[in-house]
Write a structure and sequence with these properties.
The protein has 212 residues and is α+β, with helices and mostly antiparallel strands. Helices cover 27% and strands 33% of the residues. The chain folds into two domains: 3-116; 124-207, no CATH class.
Length: 212
């Protein structure tokens, strides 16, 4: 099965599982995903499956809180238990501004959503490989780092992965596209930070001789 279809199916199955949770599933009065919120989510992500890539989903009072990163910005999509939708887009660790609010999932919502979060600007999906370099907590929200080279050995890229809802599939961001606030001081091991590794690769790449 195509990796994108596999990922999207797993995402939808996860929403269904959240809907089937019992009341107080966390022993603290937690509510399952309500039917109106589930229906709204299926409609939104059916039209915009790209928004599921690299997303982090949490239950919130019978609704959903979906967090993702696009174009160097944190994006939060809230779907309330009653099916209302709001979207905020902001830089990491800053106060979010509400950019979208809709009482129903209708065409104007998708038009506004496309302006706020354009299509085809997200991370790519790929499977984990033996040469991936896993860390338990490289930095908040991400769980895997890959050093990646294409056929041209002078091109050095650092891809940072976030686990998806499909086993062994990751959403890879190019580290150059992530805001430095996300990983500036995050420790990989010892005193080495992710930003140190990125800087070293950039400096090495810059010092390589130009092709003749």
């Amino acid at each position: 099965m195509d990796v994108y279809l596999e990922h999207h199916r797993s995402f939808c199955e996860n929403l269904a599982r959240l809907n089937m949770l019992p009341v107080s599933w966390d022993e603290k009065g937690g509510l399952p995903l309500r039917k109106k919120a589930l229906q709204a989510a299926i409609e939104i992500f059916g039209r915009r499956p790209d928004l599921t890539i690299g997303s982090v989903v949490d239950l919130k009072r019978g609704g959903l809180k979906i967090g993702l990163i696009r174009d160097g910005r944190d994006i939060t999509l809230l779907i309330c238990a009653q099916g209302t939708v709001s979207l905020s887009r902001h830089l990491p660790r800053t106060r979010p501004d509400i950019e979208l609010f809709a009482k129903a999932v209708e065409e104007p919502l998708f038009e506004t959503l496309t302006r706020a979060v354009p299509l085809f600007t997200g991370p790519r999906l790929d499977r984990g490989r033996k040469e991936d370099h896993p860390f338990t907590e490289p930095f908040e929200g991400f769980e895997l780092l890959r050093l990646f080279r294409r056929d041209d050995p002078r091109e050095r890229r650092i891809l940072v992965g976030r686990r998806t809802h499909s086993e062994g599939i990751f959403a890879f961001h190019d580290a150059r596209d992530l805001p430095t606030d996300i990983f500036r001081d995050q420790i990989l091991c010892g005193t080495t930070r992710l930003s140190d590794l990125l800087t070293a690769y950039q400096e090495t790449s810059a010092s390589d001789p130009e092709p003749v």
